[in-house]
Amino acid sequence: MKKALDIATLIGFFGGSATILGSIFTAGGIGGFINIPSLLIVIGGTIAAVFIQYSLKEVLSIMGVVRQTIMQNASDPKEMIEMLVKFAEEARKDGLLALESHVKEIEDPFIKTGLQLAIDGTEPELLREILEAEIANLEERHSKGHGIFEAFGTYAPAFGMIGTLIGLVFMLQTMSDPSSIGPSMAVALVTTFYGAVLSNFIFLPLAGKLKERTKDEVQIREMIIAGILSIQSGDNPRLVEQKLQAFLPPKLRKNEDEEG
Fold first, then answer.
1. Burial 151-186 (b: 16+ CB within 10 A, else e)
2. Positive or negative CA dihedral for 26, 27, 29, 34?
3. Contact 223/244 with Cβ under 8 angstroms?
4. Residues 6+ apart with CB under 8 A from 167
5. pLDDT bucket at 75, cuts 50 / 70 / 90
6. Is 4 helix (H, G, I), strand (E, B) or coil?
7. In angstroms, rounded to a whole number, what is the distance separating the alpha carbons of residues 260 and 257?
8. How much is the pLDDT for 110?
9. Domain residue spans in the chain?
């Protein structure tokens, strides 16, 4: 399945970064927000906690998960419906075996598997069971990615608070020097700032994006199952199209009707 750059993710990232940095520079400069010990506490502590929760292999796969957030499926559900309706027309005219020639041309492995099962004469109940098991496995794999980002989003502010507490302890130890209280408090608070930004601007939004990606992919696969089962049962192509359009948002269904 082809992938395309997700412009919304990039707009959100660069727009949010510009907003945060702009407010910092307007308020007096970025120098007061740079503190290496605070960064080490938040980033190092968060990564360590995630490694405790997940296996090394799962955490190292994070780059592939990030790639899913900035890339989106380029396939058009309407084009997929057109392809399935075309298969329905051919199967109704010449039989399911006539679709054998199309299997090798299909790039999507899910459609290829489902169509081959139908051609091989697999019982509809078993065919649905097999394809739904693949959907369940997909959701399980994706849930690992969601969970990793949610773990980062949970631990980052927690370690920000830990860093703040460390800073407050040092501040209380130097209460005899009033001139050191202000800078120490600033360092303590900037650690919380790091944790809050990483959690609410990076990790949790990415987890949410991945969940939406999973929902979209699952819906498309459920549509494919419905289409393949209709083709296998020999439904009228017009009925197949109506069934599949039910999976589209109302706006897209309306547009298709107008084009027809």
1. bbbbbbbebbebbbebbeeebeeeeeeeeeeeebee
2. negative
3. yes
4. 38, 184, 185, 187, 188, 189, 191
5. low
6. strand
7. 5
8. 92
9. 3-259
β-pairing, 3-5 vs 71-73, is antiparallel
Helix ranges restricted to H, the chain? 7-27, 36-39, 45-53, 56-60, 62-70, 77-94, 100-103, 109-119, 124-173, 178-197, 204-232, 237-245, 250-259
Place of tokens 């017009």: 238
Nearest Cα residue to 229 out of 102, 109, 132: 132
pLDDT of residue 63: 75
Give the pLDDT band of residue 260 (cuts 50, 70, 90): very low
Task: Compute the distance between CA of residue 221 and CA of residue 72 in angstroms, rounded to an integer.
Answer: 15
Gap between the Cα atoms of 244 and 124, Å rounded: 17
pLDDT band, very low/low/confident/very high, at 223 (cuts 50, 70, 90): very high
State both tokens at 33. 């927000």
Q: d(Cα 157, Cα 7) in Å, to the nearest integer?
A: 28
Secondary element (H or E) of residue 176: none
Contact 99, 119 (CB under 8 A): yes
CB atoms within 10 A of CB 128: 17
Q: What is the residue type of 124?
A: P
pLDDT (0 to 100) of residue 8: 85
Say how many C-beta atoms besides its own lie within 10 A of residue 141's C-beta: 11
How far is 227 from 27, CA to CA, in rounded Å? 58
Assign 166 a pLDDT band (cuts: 50, 70, 90). Answer: confident
By residue count, the chain amounts to 260
